[in-house]
Fold:
Amino acid sequence: MEGSFQSTKPASSRDGDPQRPLEYYNQAVQAIDLLYGVAVSGSDGAEEVLRDLAEKLTIRGGGWRQMKYLKK
Structure:
C-alpha cells in the first residue's frame, strides 16, 4: 500500500499553519480515491462505506454552508 492513514486532530484556528488544511484535503482525496478503487473492483463493503461517506459529506457540507462566518 502506498500510504498509511494516521489519525490527526483538526487544525485549530490558533494553529496559523496555512498548509494544514491542504494536507487534510490531500489525505481525504487519496482516501476517497482508494476507497473508490476498491468499490469499483466489486467490494460491497467499500461501496457501502463510500455511499455512507458521500451522505455524511453532503449533510455536513450543508451545515457548514449555513454557518455565519462562511456567509459572504
Notes: Helices lie at 20-40, 44-65. The chain has one domain: 20-70. The two ends are 42 Å apart (CA to CA). The CA atoms of residues 45 and 54 lie 14 Å apart.
